[in-house]
Amino acid sequence: MNDAVELLTLQATDPTLLTVREFRHGLRDALRAAGLPERASNDLMLAFQEHATNTLAHGSPPPKNLTLRLTREGAHWTLTIEDDGGPFDNFDGYTALATWADKRTDLRPNGLGLRLIGTRFPDHRYWPGMPAAGEANVLSLTLPPRASEILKPFVVIVEDDPTQRMVLKYLLSDAFRVADFERAGQALRVVRSHPADLILSDIEMPDMDGFAFRRELAKDHRTDTIPFVFLTGHSDDETADLASDLSIDDFLEKPVTQPILLRTARRLIRRARNLRERLVLDREKEATESLSVNVPKQIGGVQLAAASQSATAGGGDLVQTVSVKGRDVVLIADVMGHGLAARFFAHGVAAYFRSVALGANAPSSVDGLMTALSDALYNDPTYERTVVSAQMLAVDSDGVVEVASAGHPFPVHLSAEGPALVEIGGPLLGLADDLPFPSRQVTLAPGDRLLAYTDGLTEIGTERQDQTAAMQRLFAYTRDLADRTPADGLKQMMDRHREDAAGTSQDDVTALVLGR
């Protein structure tokens, strides 16, 4: 059901700046024909133009072939740019510098493209190729960003040898988001503003060696507790003693195998996260209290029902309702993660929602409200490493529902013709300033139902990877809503889901049902 559909492929031999212009016009026409919102289309076109121009101007050697591909898979649009020129060394490291280290400052012109990629496409992937072996360099950009990628732990590699750095990145990239740096000073600038989940560092490096790097991290409480591992080719006692005195977490000798590297990384990240959650439990007892599901039972001729169940204490799902200029607006949101930390951030999202909705200058449309909420999260440094998806539904008494979405699963509209997805995309909240969010209207006829939900409803066992099976289960749940009141249908659906998910790894689950 979610197989990728190829919308555009453009190829050129001996590309020039004129080729970049022609490709951009072709991409513009394809995006318009496909109906992608204007702001998202502009982001994709500008990212392509910046990257392709830099490839032609700075690739050594410049590329002889350039390929652009645009595909769509479900709610996600992916732009892939391939070239056979000289690869960009340390692409992810320089993108991280432009995105986080200089986030609030002006950049030189050659850094604007990297900042655009880092902010608008946080799950971008760049793989340097080997032109001599016929392997192209590949940059992949996806809108809206995939939460499964953004949620991966963030690992920083500091290694001055480019071959070693590329090998380490290759070994880690399937399980983690990785930024690699050739100099410790670069990494220090990034982790001070965007703390990593783990740092892997060489010892012998120019300018600042690994020991000096660790000492600098120890001076700041925000970076001192980041799990830290030395990777070195030296196993002498003096080096080991110096490393031990700096309170590092582990010491791995090169060359390190992938199983040992992954096992060490996962162990240290898991331990650090468990410690943070225990601190939340000790200091923020109120965060364990669930946010009450807040929806009215009826708005005019529309009945509403909502329910939520958490996989662990706390949980990051929420449903809240406010009245905005005479319209009832319901927010359903999912703070990615589990437990007390997710619940803590969910309280904050609910507070920001009420603040922007009840303000004197509150936008009247749900897309405007979503932009205002996203801006509030973007400008709060606390949420810099928090992934939040959401939907807002403005419910009119005559059965017209205006829906805006921020990286959230598609709602399902159950009509006399059966269940159908309401395809509406949008970026996750808080990724950048002044983000646009598309909106759609759904008209509920008598007997119709509209289901909004968090992804825990469909992610059961192996169905986390099998989207077709997940959609089949979702449509089966939706059909159960027919011929019942929203409250009765929702209760049966949640009971059925609880039985289906028994014995599997569970996520928080929240669902909202509207019906006439």
Categorize the overall geometry: globular
Strand portion = 15-25%
- Let me know the number of strands: 21
Whole-Å distance between the termini?
Answer: 29 Å
Tally of individual domains: 3
Radius of gyration: 24 Å
The CATH fourth-level homologous superfamily of the largest domain:
PPM-type phosphatase domain
**How many H/I helical runs?**
15
Give the CATH topology of the largest domain: Phosphatase 2c, domain 1
Q: Could you give the order of strands across the largest sheet?
A: 11-12-21-20-17-18
Structural class of the secondary structure composition?
Answer: alpha+beta
Average pLDDT confidence is 84
Any idea what the CATH architecture of the largest domain is?
Answer: 4-Layer Sandwich
Helical content stands at 25-40%
Uncertain segments of ≥5 residues (pLDDT<50)?
103-109, 286-290
Largest sheet: 6 strands, antiparallel
CATH top level class name of the largest domain: Alpha Beta
What do you see in this structure?
The protein has 516 residues and is an alpha+beta fold. The chain has 3 domains: 1-145, 2-Layer Sandwich (Heat Shock Protein 90), CATH 3.30.565; 152-283, Response regulator (Rossmann fold), CATH 3.40.50.2300; 288-515, PPM-type phosphatase domain (Phosphatase 2c, domain 1). The chain has 15 helices and 21 strands. The strands form 4 sheets. The protein has a 6-stranded antiparallel beta sheet with strand order 11-12-21-20-17-18, with helices on one face. Strands 1-2-3-5-4 form a 5-stranded antiparallel beta sheet, with helices on one face. Strands 7-6-8-9-10 form a 5-stranded parallel beta sheet, sandwiched between helices. Strand 2 (65-73) and strand 3 (76-83) form a beta hairpin. The two termini are 29 Å apart. 41% of the residues are buried.
